[in-house]
Amino acid sequence: MMRRWGMSTTLIHDQHASERKTGAVAQPIVPAVAYSFGNLEAAADTVAGKRDGIYYGRYGNSTLRALEEKMAVLEHGEAALCVGSGMAAISTALFSVLQNGDHLIVTKDVYGGTYHFLTTLAARCGITYSLVDCTNVENIVEAMQPNTKAVYIETPSNPMLTILDIEAIAQVTKHYQIPLIADNTFMSPYLQKPLDLGVDIVIHSATKYLNGHGDVVAGAIVANAERIQFMRQQIMGDLGQVLSAWDAFLILRGMKTLSVRMERHCSNAEQIAAFLEAHPMVDKVYYPGLQSHPQYEIAQKHMNGMGGIVSFEVKGGGEAAKSFLDALQLAMISFSLGDPETLVQHPATMTHSSIPEAEREAAGITDGLIRLSAGLEDIEDILEDLTQAFEQVNHTERSAYAWAK
Ligand SMILES: Cc1ncc(COP(=O)(O)O)c(C=O)c1O
């Protein structure tokens, strides 16, 4: 038997290539919506799921299937479903395990869009949830209700970079015989494989590191074949969340360089975190690679690299954060992350603005908090940009002080 390839090789090649008709090295884009069959029995068996195949574009296309096969291999899962956005992946995964009357336990500092889904659409469907501090597994046990049907985590979390002990949480969910769902967006399969740690369903916003070039919105779900089949047939098809062949191609192309990109994102982020930790205008830095991070040990155990996201709190609160962000010249103010460009954002007024102030503050998302996604630029240029922006804040504060006197 052939040795299992390393991650970088797997990202570039297909060990189980299903499509070798043309000999093309790059993945062919197949935009066909209609697929034909040699006879009626083949068509009927395919639609019934008795025979593998694609029959209509709303349930997938062959470029998308190539991406799904790759995602399953990379995450060490049985099967994958790729959809039109990270939120489509999250809602599909949650709707696959929850229905009217069910309850969900959710890690407390979850992505703002997930929170919005739980408080609006899921609530309309009669699904309830509890936000729980999952850094202590006892809290999860205490929050269990007779109708709790799943636990949903995000580690590292957005934007606080909280790290959860996936293995310990998986022991609890296995005991209660309910699925554990993990958002692995911040890590990508290159840095963390939640299924190996006991998770049942992994989701990604493929918009971020997987595609890596800021030009596609997409999502991915990896789980066992039965669950994926249910999501494809019963949820994605009905809600119409399919990803186009063109976008699937772009993600496959982007993923070829995932390993080299992640190495650079990590090394830039590490240096930015060290710079910020030593800066007199910074109150706190949240980065799992810093020894000051409360879950440093767990991060070392579960993650093959500490990721490209650094969050930090500037001294002077919201006003100082605003002056700092406005003064940046290289880093761009943007909602996304995981792109070649260094991107910064203000969670309190941008990604997490839908969370009420009290809940936001309780989760540590203060007005002075900034999230930075380290890009692939030369580190010296990023650090110089941060330095000059801090000097601008200093200057603004000094002018305000002189004026007030
Ligand atoms: C951790 C995390 N999960 C999910 C999403 C949603 O992804 P998308 O924007 O592709 O729907 C995001 C978006 O920022 C995210 O940061």
List the keywords.
five-stranded mixed sheet; Trans-sulfuration enzyme family protein; 2 domains; 405 residues; binds pyridoxal-5'-phosphate; Aspartate Aminotransferase, domain 1; 16 helices; 41% helix; 12 strands; Aspartate Aminotransferase, domain 2; alpha/beta; seven-stranded mixed sheet
3D structure, described in words:
- α3 packs parallel to α11 and α4 (86-97) packs across α10.
- The strands form two sheets. The chain has a seven-stranded mixed sheet with strand order 1-7-6-5-4-2-3, with helices on both faces.
- It has 16 helices and twelve strands.
- The chain has 405 residues and is α/β, with parallel strands linked by helices.
- β5 (180-183), α9 (188-191) and β6 form a beta-alpha-beta unit.
- The chain has two domains: 7-30 and 61-255, Aspartate Aminotransferase, domain 2 (3-Layer(aba) Sandwich); 258-404, Aspartate Aminotransferase, domain 1, CATH 3.90.1150.
- 41% of the residues lie in helices and 14% in strands.
- The mean pLDDT is 94.
- It binds pyridoxal-5'-phosphate (PLP).
- Pyridoxal-5'-phosphate binds at residues 85-87, 111, 113, 154, 158, 183, 185-186, 205, 207, 217, 219.
